[in-house]
Write a structure and sequence with these properties.
Keywords: Menaquinone biosynthesis, Methyltransferase, S-adenosyl-L-methionine, Transferase, Ubiquinone
Bound molecules: S-adenosylmethionine
Structural class: alpha/beta
Number of domains: 1
Number of helices: 9
Pathway: Quinol/quinone metabolism; menaquinone biosynthesis; menaquinol from 1,4-dihydroxy-2-naphthoate: step 2/2
Order of helices and strands: EEHHHEHEHEEHEHHHEE
Catalytic activity: a 2-demethylmenaquinol + S-adenosyl-L-methionine = a menaquinol + S-adenosyl-L-homocysteine + H(+)
Mean pLDDT: 91
CATH class: Alpha Beta
Low-confidence stretches: 1-7
CATH superfamily: Vaccinia Virus protein VP39
Strand order of the largest sheet: 5-4-3-6-7-9-8
Protein name: Demethylmenaquinone methyltransferase
InterPro entries: SAM-dependent_MTases_sf, UbiE/COQ5_MeTrFase, UbiE/COQ5_MeTrFase_CS
Length: about 250
């Protein structure tokens, strides 16, 4: 039997490990609805504010890829509280839509950024026309998709030919010393801090499990290509603690 912190408060049969295996929409939604009120505070605290830089870096890459397009259409999937959508909305003429499955995360996004259009939905079945976006982004969301391949195929479908997907995920450093330090922080320190602030300490036990079990760098670019993208590259950020994937349709 798992201890209390490792089980979901309203779903005692569910452990952080079992959630990562199933990742049903209902369980993921429940977890994010619960962490929503403290999500931003903890995000910035636990990353020492560097998460803002990672999103701004992705938006700067998007700007280059968009080029002279005066009105790029951008979809931010798994937008959560909207911070990556906000970065994308700073691009000249950008028409940004943020979508997420969690109504509580979206309610916060709408409050923070009333100028951006937010909609509820699922990455695996995007409610948008084929070839309708120049950029599809996702910050720290793909790892939670119930069906990753289906989600990435949907990114590909809704992109215009030549459009790009930009995906940010946490990265486990490849350098052995950095990796050891990172995992101590990620598995021992981070869940303790989070449990003092968030209603759902469960979510922060799930986080290291989900990152450790998720395909990274070349493994993930191979998945992007098998989802239909003609090319895919990755850029490690901040001593390989985060990674940006860029894939072209
Ligand atoms: C860690 S948060 C990231 C939020 C935001 N993008 C950011 O940069 O902080 C992950 C988000 O992904 C959403 N999510 C997870 N699976 C999803 C899916 N299949 N479809 C849509 N949203 C999903 C969750 O509801 C949550 O808001």
């Amino acid at each position: 039997m798992a201890n209390k912190a490792e089980t979901s408060p309203n779903r005692p049969q569910e452990t952080a490990k079992s959630l990562f295996r199933t990742k049903s929409h209902a369980s993921i939604q429940h977890m994010f609805d619960e962490v929503a009120p403290t999500y931003d505070f903890l995000n910035h605290l636990l990353s020492l504010g560097i998460d803002n830089y990672w999103r701004a870096f992705a938006a700067a890459k998007a700007k280059k890829l968009i080029g002279a397009n005066p009105a790029p259409d951008i979809l931010d999937v798994a937008t959560g509280t909207g911070d990556l959508a906000k970065e994308m909305s700073k691009l000249q003429g950008a028409r940004v839509t943020g979508m997420d499955l969690s109504p509580e995360m979206l309610a916060i996004a709408e409050k923070k950024y009333p100028q951006i259009r937010f909609v509820q939905g699922y990455a695996e079945k995007l409610n948008f026309d084929t070839a309708s976006f120049d950029i599809v982004s996702a910050g720290f969301g793909a790892r939670n998709f119930e069906d990753l391949t289906k989600g990435l195929k949907e990114f590909h479908r809704v992109l215009k030919p030549g459009g790009h997907a930009l995906i940010i995920e946490p990265m486990i450093p490849r350098n052995p010393v950095m990796k050891k330090l990172y995992l101590i922080y990620f598995k021992k320190v981070l869940p303790k801090i989070a449990s003092m602030v968030s209603k759902s300490s469960f979510a922060y036990d799930y986080l290291p499990h989900s990152v450790e079990s998720f395909p990274q760098d070349k493994e993930f670019t191979a998945i992007l290509k098998s989802a239909g993208f003609q090319s895919a590259e990755f850029i490690p950020m901040t001593f390989e603690t985060s990674i940006l994937y860029i894939a072209k349709k």
